[in-house]
Design a protein that fits this description.
about 130 residues; Rossmann fold; alpha/beta; five-stranded parallel β-sheet; 5 strands
Length: about 130
């Protein structure tokens, strides 16, 4: 079974069925929907999704979508703890704090990160797919 971590835009575009979702990321979500993969969602992704949705005037029903994600077996939410901050230096090639948290989850569980963020993909810290 494949393991992925989704960044905020990947999750948002999956939830909105957007053509902006990259082909490889879309295939990963399809795998998960077919019980062939697990997609990990760092808790910071949920927070960023909330604010992105507000910025876009409620493109999704946030509470409904979050409830569905919690209930779906193919998605696993990963909490952020103070202990995780100890790993920040291991991901220092990624400058932005929230992205560093997401990258850290992917690195710790050895999962492919679904992202198009060039700073992350160019860092080489984790495998990425888009």
């Amino acid at each position: 079974m494949n393991h992925y971590v989704a960044d905020t835009h990947a999750l948002f575009w999956y939830l909105t069925n957007s053509p902006q979702l990259g082909a490889q990321a879309s295939a990963a979500f399809d795998e998960a929907d077919n019980d062939q993969a697990i997609i990990y969602l760092p808790s910071i992704v949920a927070a960023e999704l909330y604010f992105l949705n507000k910025k876009l005037s409620g493109a999704i029903d946030f509470n409904k979508e979050m409830t569905a994600l919690f209930q779906a077996g193919q998605f696993v939410f990963v909490p952020f703890t103070a202990r995780d901050a100890i790993d920040f230096d291991a991901d220092s090639a990624v400058g932005e704090m929230h992205d560093r948290i997401i990258v850290g989850v992917a690195r710790r569980i050895n999962a492919t990160l679904l992202t198009r963020d060039l700073q992350i993909t160019n860092s080489g810290v984790v495998a990425t797919a888009w």
